[in-house]
UniProtKB/TrEMBL annotation:
SMART domains: PKS_KR. Belongs to the short-chain dehydrogenases/reductases (SDR) family. Its EC number is 1.1.1.100. NADP(+) binds at residues 89, 154-158, 187. Keywords: Fatty acid biosynthesis, Fatty acid metabolism, Lipid biosynthesis, Lipid metabolism, NADP, Oxidoreductase. GO terms for biological process: fatty acid biosynthetic process. Homotetramer. It is an enzyme of class 1 (oxidoreductase). The active site is at residue 154. CDD domains: BKR_SDR_c. InterPro entries: 3oxo_ACP_reduc, KR_dom, NAD(P)-bd_dom_sf, Sc_DH/Rdtase_CS, SDR_fam. This is 3-oxoacyl-[acyl-carrier-protein] reductase.
Amino acid sequence: MRLLNKVAIITGGASGIGKETARLFAQNGAKLVIADYNEEAGQAALEELHALGAEAEFVRADVSNREDVQNLINTAKSKFGAIDILVNNAGITRDGWLVKMDPAQWDQVISINLTGVFNCTQSAASVMMEQGSGVILNAASVVGLYGNIGQTNYAAAKAGVIGMTKSWAKELGPKGIRVNAVAPGFIMTGMTDKMPEKVLGMMEEKTPLRRLGQPDDIAKAYLFLASDDASFVNGAVLSVDGGLTL
Ligand code: NAD
């Protein structure tokens, strides 16, 4: 019960890492608002949370749309009276070689993975500043730290998320708000599990712990950072990658 009665918003909470984080937070006593642009998956995830006995809401929201985001924040505030934790988890990939990358691929990834994080944080931070407390957790990636072939757009967005995390840790820290990021390595979710067996085997071989990451590996890192156990952790970027990037 490390998050007893804390109100947490998790974007992209309908699947993968976000869904697992919502489940773990609920098991630790949090009240949840999961936001996703996939209505059907969001409703299904909500039913699973209710089955666990959690107090939870689903809000359909596209994080790149400022009106959707303001509605999300307003709904969370009016339903639960506070916003203690925001997990900026929603994200996509649209990979391609630099010279072949369509401008739309660039725009989509930047608007969701970078501007989406800005939109949600800007709206939630006003509420947290009034409260004088809050925790903001951002989904970065080891790609944002080290780059990756075919992921110019994704690397730029995730590096930007790291820059925003550090800036907000400085700006919001004095207001009682901690801001940290998690940089996952290769985690088995809908984002990665369609990769050929050969690539998955290669990733496993390159990882010193000799296994691929699972959504709960990241959810547990978010739980630590969201909890009071991390009360002096601010502006950190925690790599959770089994040592892949060493
Ligand atoms: P996923 O595809 O399983 O889940 C992402 C969720 O975000 C989906 O439910 C999707 O509908 C939602 N989403 C996408 N765009 C949205 C938008 N505009 N508005 C609202 N919801 C939106 O992916 P995942 O692997 O669980 O990824 C979660 C986060 O972790 C992402 O930010 C991703 O970049 C990051 N990450 C993942 C990995 C990995 O290996 N899986 C590695 C590093 C970082």
